[in-house]
Amino acid sequence: MLNPENLIRPEVLAMTRYAVTDADGLIKLDAMENPFPLPEPLAHELGQRLSQLALNRYPAPHPSALIEKLKRMMDVPSGCDVLLGNGSDEIISMLAVACARPGAKVLTPVPSFVMYEQTARLAQLEFIGVPLKDDFTLDTQAMSLALERHQPALVYLAYPNNPTGNLFDTDALEQIIGAAHASLVVIDEAYQPFAEHSWMKRLTEFKNVLVMRTFSKLGLAGIRLGYLVGAPAWLAQIDKVRPPYNTNVLTQAAAEFLLDHLTLFDKQAALLRAERARLATLLAQLPELTVYPSAGNFLLVRTPDAQRVFDHLLAQRILVKNLSKMHPLLLHCLRLTVGTPFENEQLLAALKTALVEA
Ligand SMILES: *Cc1c(COP(=O)(O)O)cnc(C)c1O
Predict the structure, then answer these.
(1) How far is CA 76 from CA 93, 311, 340, in A?
(2) From CA 50, how far away is CA 60, in angstroms rounded?
(3) More exposed terminus of the chain, fewer Cβ within 10 Å: N or C?
(4) At the top level of CATH, which class does the domain 4-39+263-356 belong to?
């Protein structure tokens, strides 16, 4: 009798699937989504556009109008190329597959975005996690030593970092890019709309750096579009492992249309940044909580008991992310996505009772 166990790789058999909690009827503050839907007139106009697409045809493998617009709107330096992915998750997979020589390694500070490790392991690259310091800053000495010792093919630096929320120090990052002279360094700017700092304009200063971004945190998580920016010599290689029709016609057209309305998303990001500051101030007044500085659309907080606080919030129909078991540095930490002013009020009220009861 043939069983999946006979054919599927042991490491896949040992995995658990990426769990997404059913958020039906909940205030969803677990996944860094933008809480604002598209305004009705814009949604209507988008619908009109999408209704005219030839869904019977394969998408353009290199949608040049979209890519040109993206370059213009996102300050892509001249001479740099753009590679599109079905979310940055797919780009992370492509990078791993492209670099998976025997013995190749992926190195990142930890804790950081879980997909770096997960995709590395699936592509059979060794994963090296270098712990951040207690205050979540980069341990440049440990990073430099690890870079020298492991000579990783790929280095990921999330800027700002998820789940800790902080922006790494510019000097520290430059030092690490220098120490990683034999590696491809990917600066992941998924939270760029909330960070107001970027390495995009500095890309051409470095031979070994790529910048990765996504439409997801900006407000379009549903369309699944990420992009990688950098020197054509790198992107041409990575493009070879890209499934030819990885971004679909609906996504391409929606992105091209919505890039003409970037000011709307910029305004939403500004509102969320203001809400982040307000929420951080109010949370810091609760003596049981430690609130960490964040340049993303989320706040990391340390609680007296993360599971109990999480459960109390859920009982009040608010879903957040419990990171307590992700890494020792995150013991009793919760990650709270910044929502609408109303949602944030609900969160604050619920947290106050949760902290009393927990
Ligand atoms: C959310 C996130 C991404 C995301 O990805 P998409 O696949 O584009 O939705 C990438 N990097 C980091 C650090 C993130 O937090």
Answers:
(1) 23, 44, 31
(2) 15
(3) N
(4) alpha beta
Q: How far is CA 159 from CA 182, 186, 263, 295, in A?
A: 21, 10, 22, 9
For the CA of 221, the closest atom of ligand 1 is 9
Residue nearest to atom 3 of ligand 1 (CA): 190
Six-digit token string for 189: 């700017």
Classified as helix, coil or strand, 196 is coil
Question: Does the predicted TM-score (pTM) go above 0.85?
Answer: yes
- 93 Cβ below 6 A of ligand 1: no
Q: Where are the domains of the chain?
A: 4-39+263-356, 59-261
Q: Does ligand 1 have an atom closer than 6 angstroms to the CB of 88?
A: yes
Per-residue pLDDT tens for 119-176?
999 999 999 999 999 999 999 999 999 999 999 999 999 999 999 999 999 999 999 9
188 lines ligand 1 (CB under 6 A): yes
